[in-house]
């Protein structure tokens, strides 16, 4: 029986399996090493690129001149403000409803019109109420004449009683008749006055100075007495108020200033806090703190002569609690921070010297600081290039504003 022939890979001219595996592993390691080298090169390049500006800045700071904008510390006053969100609220808002039932005959106002107290707004058909008034006036006239007749009879009876011509009872009866007629006349007078009021309700006038809203009724509409639907809404907007809330922790400072009798100023800004809409005064504080939110409501009044405050508008308010005088002011951008430490670069003999300061109140881009003196110059730019002792050149000088303006001057 023939035996099967065994042929090895070496006999067929192919490399052994172990050699193939070794070559494959070698190529894998080569590829891994190449990838690792590329990754190392990329990380080193990124690190060099990010370190270049810092190295260049430090080189400029240590070996060259750094151009900077400097600010001169100024002595002035700065306000302590409490900021809050408020809602514009009309001083008075009157929703005028019908007091009588009838058909509207005229609407005198235009939508959005400014009206004065007493200006006509709406007329309701008054003819039924005028007729009732005429009836009441007729009854009053009749009863007044009956009273006059009874009073004349009483005078005759008094004269007759003085001559003992009539019994006492007749005189007393006539006195009571006079009193009855007086009561009837008084009742008639009340009826006339009531009907006069009903007639006046047919001619509706503005109860306050203000602005009317959109027209809510038209001529020909039937309205009912004491209906909840208003005929017209009048809102007083000159002056107008803003209601805002403050945390209860701020209330003692506000009350302390109010007790001095000096009105506290309130500024109203738009939603972006960039444009001042109006300046006003704080007029009152609510009588209780909201226990849910821990806040208290305050109301400020504004003349609103420019009409920029509109009912139910949201505004940002700034309440001036007090003003700190004789403060050293520098631009807030000149103050640098290192953790809890604040510092500035003080300019001395064309050198930038680090100086620790203590920051206080900030307002309108200025900050009150201690640690430097008025007149000192501090760096206000190029902080990424400055180190302690850097040589600088002044490109521009900024003087902090002690009022609402900022002054810039060339070096």
Report the C-alpha radius of gyration, rounded: 46 Å
Element pattern in H and E: HEEEEEEHHEEEEEHEEEEEEEEEEE
Which parts are unreliable, with pLDDT below 50 for 5 consecutive residues or more? 1-14, 50-62, 403-411
Strand order of the largest sheet: 2-11-14-13-12-15
- End-to-end distance, in Å? 115 Å
Mean pLDDT over the full residue set: 85
Shape: elongated
- Which architecture name of the largest domain does CATH use? Beta Barrel
Largest sheet: 6 strands, antiparallel, barrel
Please state roughly what percent of the residues sit in beta strands, choosing from under 5%, 5-15%, 15-25%, 25-35%, 35-45% or over 45%: 35-45%
CATH topology grouping of the largest domain: conserved putative lor/sdh protein from methanococcus maripaludis s2 fold
CATH class of the largest domain: Mainly Beta
Tally of structural domains:
4
Strands, count: 22
**Overall SS class:** alpha+beta
Number of discrete helical segments: 4
Fraction of residues in H or I helices: 25-40%
């Amino acid at each position: 029986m023939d035996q099967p022939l065994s042929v090895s890979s070496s006999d067929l001219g192919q490399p052994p399996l172990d050699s193939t595996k070794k070559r494959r592993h070698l190529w894998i390691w080569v590829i891994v090493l190449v990838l690792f080298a590329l990754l190392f090169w990329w990380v080193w390049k990124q690190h060099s690129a990010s370190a270049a500006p810092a190295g260049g800045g430090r080189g400029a700071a240590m070996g060259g001149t750094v151009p900077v904008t400097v600010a001169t510390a100024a002595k002035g006053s700065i306000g302590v403000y409490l900021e809050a969100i408020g809602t514009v609220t009309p001083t008075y808002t009157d929703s005028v409803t019908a007091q009588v039932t009838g058909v509207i005959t005229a609407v005198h106002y235009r939508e959005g019109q400014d009206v004065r107290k007493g200006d006509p707004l709406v007329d309701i058909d008054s003819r039924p109420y005028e007729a009732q008034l005429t009836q009441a006036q007729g009854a009053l006239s009749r009863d007044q004449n009956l009273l006059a007749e009874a009073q004349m009879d009483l005078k005759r009876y008094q004269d007759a009683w003085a001559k003992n011509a009539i019994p006492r009872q007749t005189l007393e009866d006539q006195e009571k008749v006079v009193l009855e007629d007086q009561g009837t006349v008084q009742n008639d007078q009340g009826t006339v006055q009531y009907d006069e009021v009903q007639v006046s309700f047919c001619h509706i006038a503005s109860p306050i100075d203000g602005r009317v809203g959109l027209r809510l009724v038209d001529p020909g509409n039937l309205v009912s007495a004491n209906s909840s639907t208003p005929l017209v809404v009048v809102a007083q907007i000159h002056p107008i108020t803003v209601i805002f809330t403050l945390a209860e922790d701020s209330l003692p400072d506000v009350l302390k200033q109010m007790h001095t009798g000096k009105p506290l100023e309130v500024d109203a800004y738009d939603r972006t806090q960039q444009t001042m809409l109006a300046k006003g005064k704080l007029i009152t504080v609510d009588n209780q703190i909201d226990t849910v939110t821990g806040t208290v409501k305050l109301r400020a009044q504004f003349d609103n002569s420019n009409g920029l405050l509109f009912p139910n508008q949201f505004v940002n308010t700034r309440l001036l609690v007090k003003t700190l005088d004789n403060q050293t002011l520098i631009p807030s951008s000149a103050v640098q921070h290192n953790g809890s430490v604040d510092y500035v670069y003080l300019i001395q003999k064309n050198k930038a010297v680090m100086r620790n300061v203590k920051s206080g109140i900030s307002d309108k881009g200025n900050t009150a600081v201690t640690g430097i003196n008025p007149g000192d110059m501090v760096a206000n730019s190029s902080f990424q290039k400055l180190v302690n002792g850097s040589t600088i050149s002044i490109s521009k000088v900024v003087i902090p504003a002690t009022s609402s303006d900022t002054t810039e001057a060339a070096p």
